[in-house]
DUF309 domain-containing protein (Paenibacillus auburnensis), 150 residues
Amino acid sequence: MAYEPLYLAYLVYFNRDRDYFECHEVLEELWLAQERNPLYKALLQVAVGLYHFRNNNVRGAAIMMIRAHEVLGTYPGDSLGIDLAKLVLEAGIYAEQLKAYEAHPFPYYDLTIDILDPALAEEVKLAAAGITPNQPQRRGPQRPDKAHRK
């Protein structure tokens, strides 16, 4: 099975670069191209939740993780060639921790999406070779510089 290039890029940005803003950018494009597939949206929300929490937006992180957990849990545990069951469990734990953050704060930590399909693992490896990490990572949408504005 050949996987969508934008999905491959999402996995590279998520697992290798921990660049959750870029995860949002590439998966949103795929989500729109795939007629707003709820599975892609939920994967996007996991990345956005991590992005928010890493940037001290606990409320935004909780909203995203709760929504992602609810939707991801409705899919088979090996969807899209990944260990979705593990991601569902971890997103649920994160969501619960975020809901209780005020009473029980905890340090930010990354998640990793485990790849089950060997073909997907190979495609991600090949895609990663062509993706340069963003240094520094973007903190939000970037406006064109003045030379490019009309």
About this structure: Residues 37 and 128 are 24 Å apart (CA to CA). The helical segments are 5-17, 20-33, 38-54, 58-72, 84-99, 118-129.
